[in-house]
Each structure stands twice: as C-alpha cells, then as structure tokens.
Amino acid sequence: MEQQDRGRAGRARVQLEAVFTADFAAQPEGRRALLLAGLETTTSWEAWQHLRFTRNPEEARQVMA
C-alpha cells in the first residue's frame, strides 16, 4: 500500500511538472522546488479530503480559488 502511494505521488509530481513547465522556468531555481511542493500539497488527496470533511462546498471552492 505504501509503495502504491509513493508511486501515485511520483506520477502526480511528474504531471504537475509537465503542466507547469513554463511557470517553473520563469522562476529562480530555488523557488521552483517550493512551488512544486506547494502544488503537490494543495492538489493531494489529503487536502481534498480535509476540505470535504471540514468545509461546506462553497467554502471549499473559495479556498481553492
């Protein structure tokens, strides 16, 4: 199970890097890793699950906007 989670996280990271290639390229190298970490966190299943169980749908939309 843990290995599957790591595999999913790795695939998600690769996808984020592909989608935001131009955005990352425009940033200083040290900032890129921080931006990627932030995107990984905010798009993680855990983040969505937390919003789902602690906020109503409108609040969740506002948080992600």
Structure description:
It is a single chain. By secondary structure, the chain is mainly α. The protein is 85% helix and 0% strand. It is built from five helices and no strands. The chain is flat, with a radius of gyration of 14 Å. The model has no long low-confidence stretch (mean pLDDT 87).
Features:
5 helices, mainly alpha, flat
Shape: flat
Mean pLDDT: 87
Please give the share of residues in helix.
over 70%
User: How many beta strands in the DSSP annotation?
Assistant: 0
Output the helix-strand order. HHHHH
Share of residues in strands: under 5%
The total count of helices amounts to 5
Unreliable residue runs: none
In whole angstroms, how far apart are the ends?
Answer: 32 Å
What is the gyration radius calculated from CA atoms? 14 Å
Draw up the topology in text.
Layout: H1 2-19, H2 21-25, H3 29-42, H4 45-54, H5 57-64
Question: Short summary of the structure?
Answer:
The protein has five helices and no strands. By secondary structure, the protein is an all-alpha fold.
